[in-house]
Task: inverse folding
């Protein structure tokens, strides 16, 4: 996959993630979950803007419009079940973020231009933090990890 194809694919993935998080925010019954999904949607919209800018730059330079491989998009976008609990939504979000960050890491390694490579590296890092945010929320809800809104103990020395 060349750089322009990777950017076109990234645009498609970010669009799907944005729609996914907005849909979850609308459905969320829990206010903290709703705010988290809106935060993630905002982040994905910002990623869209960055990719769009680089895509247009590359498009102008190469004067060719790549076709987006729908099969590859299908592999990078997690299929959302018809009914989804908030816990299941967080799990789907975790899976989506992991697929995306791994794709961006690979695209960074294959990028031809340093500025596109840096963009993919930065967004891979951000997508990984999205995964970690969702994982922390999942652990909090399932009571298997740290609590997002409650501190059991302090690490501060008195």
Result:
């Amino acid at each position: 996959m060349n750089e322009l194809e990777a950017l076109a694919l990234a645009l498609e993935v970010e669009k799907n993630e944005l729609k996914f998080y907005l849909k979850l925010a609308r459905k969320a019954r829990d206010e903290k979950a709703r705010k988290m999904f809106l935060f993630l949607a905002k982040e994905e919209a910002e990623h869209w803007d960055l990719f769009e800018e680089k895509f247009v730059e590359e498009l102008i330079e190469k004067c060719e419009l790549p076709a987006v491989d729908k099969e590859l998009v299908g592999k990078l976008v997690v299929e959302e079940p018809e009914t989804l609990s908030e816990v299941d939504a967080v799990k789907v979000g975790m899976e989506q973020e992991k697929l995306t960050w791994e794709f961006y890491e690979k695209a960074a390694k294959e990028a031809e231009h340093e500025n596109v490579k840096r963009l993919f590296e930065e967004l891979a890092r951000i997508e990984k933090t999205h995964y970690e945010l969702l994982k922390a929320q999942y652990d909090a809800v399932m009571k298997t990890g740290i609590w997002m809104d409650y501190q059991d103990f302090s690490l501060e020395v008195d």
The radius of gyration is 17 Å.
